[in-house]
Amino acid sequence: MKILVINCGSSSLKYQLFDMDNEEVLVKGLVERIGIDGSRLKQEKGEDEFIIEEDMKDHTQAVKHVFDALTDEDNGVISNLSEIDAVGHRFVHGGEKITSSVLIDDEVKKAVKEYSKFAPLHNPANMMGLEACEKLLPNVKNVAVFDTAFHQSMPEENFLYGIDYKYYEEQSIRKYGFHGTSHDFITQKTAELLGKDQSELNMISCHLGNGSSICAVKDGRSYDTSMGLTPLEGLVMGTRSGDLDPAVVTFLMDEYGYDTKKIDNVLNKESGVLGVSGVSSDFRDLEDAANNGNKRAEIALKMFANRAKRYIAGYMAEVGNVEAIVFTGGIGENSITMREDIMNGFEQFGIKIDSEKNNVRGGAHLISTDDSRVKVFVVATNEELMIARDTKRLV
Ligand code: ADP
């Protein structure tokens, strides 16, 4: 069974074609600058690259070029589009209506539109990818896998904000959480590594990348998570502020005359470790700068580590009987020093990482000492595979 996984952003589209008989990635690619001058598709098959540079005015044209690349005589991997059995789409916000991956129907589309108010950049873009597939592959089933779905198991005391209950009732203002597909994948994988049933696993999943979130998993399900109504809450991120006193927002708006669009931009694009350091949002640059004596880069890295510690420790107390702490995402999988900095201080709870074992990137590795009270792992996430698996199951 061949499954195409599509992840549409507002001007980009990532895709992977899986052979689900052996979960092999046959080909993957990225389309950039959709609707902007200089559209470009890059497809990778092993070491080989195939590039299409042609204007793509919308997502339908982008999807059409993806299909051309997949079936290209010299660079493609299938000879006919009929070889695609199903398409799995990454969707961002399914609100309270969507609690798991679903075959797309009118109800799902309605939910996507309804919750676009909380994901104005993502949901409409996800929808455009879906509509393009429906048009160009009319006989193929589409499945939606939502970032928010895994977190729908959170209890009310964890998803509500400390504001008047009427805002939840009238406007659905609550914590939804994101990166659910990754936290779900990591939970499944950790259960496998520990050789136990997922439903009996309590753990902390730390997805640290450009966007970062930590998830408290209780009985194999999301119990609490650091991202909120939108992916702005929680950890200090590449360019997002994460948690801050809400009064900062109103103060900045008053003092600088910022409107909602501007403040949204300040908090999402100009903040986080980029804003604090003035250097970069990329942790490799920050680590280099800090090593070369840049004070603000050093502070940004310390802030990131401290905020992560706070969530991990708090969630351990919320969940109880935590068996594993798992690092994933670009930073979680690759930054040896950041993992060390975050776990530094947990020795007093009997949790220790082994510096030699921690000298790894990606894969699936145990990095804690033999006598650590909680096992610490590095596990590479794979959201696309998760989407492909759910798609296979549902079709
Ligand atoms: P996204 O949230 O966009 O999917 P990723 O999970 O790919 O992001 O994470 C990207 C981040 O991972 C980069 O910005 C960089 O900070 C970090 N990263 C990648 N490789 C390394 C490395 N070797 N050392 C430290 N940080 C790294």
TrEMBL record:
Any one GO MF annotation of this record: magnesium ion binding
Q: What is this protein called?
A: Acetate kinase
Q: Where in the cell is it found?
A: Cytoplasm
Which gene name does the record give? ackA
One BP annotation, GO: acetyl-CoA biosynthetic process
Organism lineage reads as: Bacteria, Bacillati, Bacillota, Tissierellia, Tissierellales
Q: Which NCBIfam families match?
A: ackA
- Keywords, A to Z? ATP-binding, Cytoplasm, Kinase, Magnesium, Metal-binding, Nucleotide-binding, Transferase
In what pathway does it function? Metabolic intermediate biosynthesis; acetyl-CoA biosynthesis; acetyl-CoA from acetate: step 1/2
